[in-house]
Amino acid sequence: MERKAYLLFSGGLDSIIAAKLLQKLGFKVVGVHVTSPFFEKEPEKLKELAEKLGIELKIIEAGDDYLEMLKNPVYGYGKNVNPCIDCKAYMLRKLKEIAGDEGVIATGEVLGQRPMSQHMQAFRSIEKLSGLKGRILRPLSGKLLPPTIYEEQGIVSKEELLDLKGRSRKRYPEILRNLGIDIDNLPTPAGGCLLTEPSFAVKVRDLMEHGELTWENVRLLKIGRHFRLGDCKLVVGRNAVENATIRKILSDKDYLITVPGIPSPDALLRCKGEPERDVLRIAAGIVARYSDAKNEPKVEVAVYRNGKLIERLEVEPIRDTTPYSVTHKGS
Ligand code: SF4
């Protein structure tokens, strides 16, 4: 009977090694890749990589339940808003949904490689939270870890596993050679995790504090300069590509603000309910400040909604703001 292993597959070096090692042990490998706007890798490169490795690939989108977890992770955050232990457990729960009761569940984790999520206690927490106690095979460090049910049932033997520990990559060339991995000829899907970036974390926290953490709003965080104006968010495009993106993602309820007739950013104003009058004026003043009319005493700014011009506002450019420095609290 075919032996299957379901591997949490990031496309990074450790998951490549895990895939090849599992294949060497006789498993048919199914790579499960969980993606979200926070951590995205180029899907085409992932598919190409999976093909070259000879593994099946399943790509799953994180759902609203990921955002729920992010608001209140059981094991807290790392340095920024990265809930690594809960995040790993989330991914493994998704993987388990695919695997059912079939096959071995595995990851490319290395003991001691990452401070938050890859030490012995973290491994136990991930197993508990994902409901996979004793059922996660970590073949790269398996020799150093307590036996999983797969070893207990004789499905794999400890001797066949590796004993990698820590961050050093000194032994990798030899391991790659032994597994016949020609890393130079494999595609490398780019992309890190935005939740670990301080400037992105500020914007995520702002959404959480205002009860606005939705995927639609998270996608907005990837572009533009961001300003908080009470119950509204202003996103100001920084170049032609971002301006075009802003126009593309405008919803019927959003406002488009721009300075007509001169080079100007496009900006999106998204509010819970209707914005107060002075919020519109502040938003217009910020947009004017980033336009070519920034040194004029007064600038005429156009406000559109749903494709229609709703008003023109004459405002002074607001020069003393930096993104997130405006925190209008309402009158
Ligand atoms: S770095 Fe990001 S993607 Fe990776 S485990 Fe942590 S939160 Fe999840």
From TrEMBL:
What's one Pfam family here? ThiI
**InterPro entries, per database record:** NFACT-R_2, Rossmann-like_a/b/a_fold, ThiI_AANH
Q: Which residues form the NFACT protein RNA binding domain?
A: 224-320
Q: Gene3D superfamilies, alphabetically?
A: HUPs
Keywords of the record = ATP-binding, Nucleotide-binding
Q: Does the keyword Zinc-finger apply?
A: no
Q: Could you tell me one molecular function GO term of this UniProt entry?
A: ATP binding
Q: Which residues form the Thil AANH domain?
A: 4-142
Q: Which PANTHER family did the record assign? A: THIL AANH DOMAIN-CONTAINING PROTEIN (PTHR11933:SF6), TRNA 5-METHYLAMINOMETHYL-2-THIOURIDYLATE -METHYLTRANSFERASE (PTHR11933)
Protein name, per record: Uncharacterized protein DUF814
Record the organism. Phorcysia thermohydrogeniphila
Q: What is the lineage of its organism?
A: Bacteria, Pseudomonadati, Aquificota, Aquificia, Desulfurobacteriales
